[in-house]
Amino acid sequence: MKKLVFTDPIDLSLVSQAARIIKDNGILIHPTENLYGFGANIYDKASIQKITTLKHRKKNTKGFVVLVSDYIQLDKLITRANRIEKYLMQKYWPGSLTLILRAKKEYWKNPICYRKKIAVRMVGNDITRTILKEADLPIISTSINISGEKSINDPKLIEEKFRNDVAGMVIDKVNHFSDKPSTIAKVIGKKVIVLRRGAIYKPNPNLK
Which CATH class is domain 2-196? Predict the structure, then answer.
């Protein structure tokens, strides 16, 4: 496992090494706004399957959260967002709001999809966002844990447990963590339905 310790969010040498791991279809442990996660290129089903196995996660029960660096990456994944979805993006992104959005047809059979939808957010952690931009690829992102158990968020414990299972680990010594997951929400009609409460208690578009 390659260990990449960031004390500067735009350390270009480390960014390049982390991006290369993603492009080479390796599993990268990365920071998000609040937690560390397993990450992998969304187009590499073998890496996604390995993460599923590491987490003892049941197959085909739900999709994965996808992280993007910008709207260019987002537009490749989803059909047109509606007015409320766009407002929520503008208000909370980059940040801790994951939105359930309509996937383009070519992704319906990809493991990231569940019932033709993708759970996606523009990641708020500046290190990971820079890495994704350099890689020019979105990644899946899922908490460091066995499914149903508490997340592990201590870099030392993560390294001890998974050093032989992943290609690289990004350690964030720049940002602070709240240990709360992202809030997951979807828009139905004119209502915002919260599916998982997290760092954002109740996202509200406040549209008239």
Answer: alpha beta
